[in-house]
Amino acid sequence: MSQKAIATALTILALGLTGCQKSMDPQAAQTPSRTQERGQQTAQTPSVTQEGGQKAGLEHAFEGSDGTKKPYVKARYPDPNPSPKAPIILGNPPFDFSDHEWANFSQSGEDGVLEAIFQVIEPTNKFVVEFGASEGIELSNARHLIINRGWSGLLLEGDEAMAEKLVKNYAEFPKVKAAQAWIYPGNVETLFRQYGVPKDLDLLSIDIDSNDYYVWKVLHEFRPKVLVVEYNASYPPPEKMVVEFSPFNFWDGSDYYGASLQSLKNLGQEKGYELIYCTNLGANAIFVDKKYFARFKISDNSAEALYKLPLYGVIDGGRAPNGLGHPSSEIKVLKYGSFVRLFEDTMDWDAMKIPKKRRNDL
Asked: Tens digit of pLDDT for each residue in 77-129?
């Protein structure tokens, strides 16, 4: 099966639109380094005034089809230089996980938050699975645990070129299995059995920008204690939204991907999980098995209470309440230098058209 359409569509990541699955574009040399894009994260919602000038580090602006300029807000990251051996002092619950957002490798502070969570929930097998692992270094929720905490794991990446780098990057870690695989609801537990994943694994990270909801839904035999999953912050609670399932779904750079936080929370409760945190970037939600939930003493874990606005995207170009988030599909043309991106009502996989349908019943 040709991957040309996937590679072409995901070159949108060259725009620096962060918050979704790592780039599968084999033309990596043309994509700016995410390390270069990292900046100081702010927990405040950006405004046009705050983010519209050189002090905010803006270098480009999008141009809508109506000719209006829309400044682009780069995702803000926590300080990426914590000491991996520094002790974490949690104190008594409830915990403010915002205080523990730091990143050695993760996108928006998940390294520090997971460190704190696994002080509350003692890991039993120290095993992590990450879908959409890219090259396994930048924006990884697994690497800190593997290289600094001695965890074992399974890292899977769909793109063949990126998966080749992934395998090389973990060749010296005998407790880690890295491989190329596209993840679908029909093969996820088969892959777990094939690679010897323990049924009570400690951590699962899902970031595949498409069928995330459906992949989690079909997990029955395997039950992670903690789950990190990307949510679509363009759809705030109580709005329910899940992309219509297609085995050919992919992210085209628009706000058509994954599921809203409300839909993921509803699914989690059906499966016996409780929401405990959303990162300040407005990217990832963290769930725990409900048998551990009381340990965190969270008085209100509703989607409305824990939702975070997206701190990335095109000002007034997204549908989130702060006007941010990945560009709405209604924006038909975005220009970035010489790059032009068309957002259609369908996505192309070579000659095949995949209609964009959003479900609000899940």
From this structure: 444 445 444 556 677 888 889 888 888 899 889 999 999 999 999 999 999 99
* Cα 244 to Cα 255: distance, rounded to the nearest angstrom: 13
Location of structure tokens 């949690």: 90
- Which of 11, 233, 240, 225 lies closest to 108, judged by CA? 233
**Separation between Cα atoms, residue 7 and residue 302, nearest integer Å:** 37
In 3-state terms, what secondary structure has residue 68? coil
Q: What's 354's DSSP letter?
A: E
Predicted confidence (pLDDT) per residue in 306-331, tens digit: 999 999 887 777 889 998 888 877 66
Instruction: Give φ, ψ of 178 to 5 degrees.
Output: -120, 135
3-state secondary structure of 106: coil
Query: DSSP characters for 211-238?
Result: SHHHHHHT--S---SEEEEE--TTS-TT
